[in-house]
Amino acid sequence: MGSTETKAEFLARIQKDIDAGHPANYERALEVAIWAHKHKQTRNGGEFIRHPQTVLNLCQTKSPSKEIICLLHDVVEDSDLTLEDLYNLGFSDRIILGLDAVTKRKDEKYVEFIQRCARSFKEFPFDKRDDAIDVKLADLSHNCQTNRYQCAKWTAKERAKMILYNISYYYLLNIKRENIDADMTLMDYIKTQPIFYNEPEIINALMDEFSTSSERLPVEYAYTVTAPDISFNPLAINPAHS
Question: What's the mean per-residue pLDDT of the chain?
Answer without folding.
Answer: 87
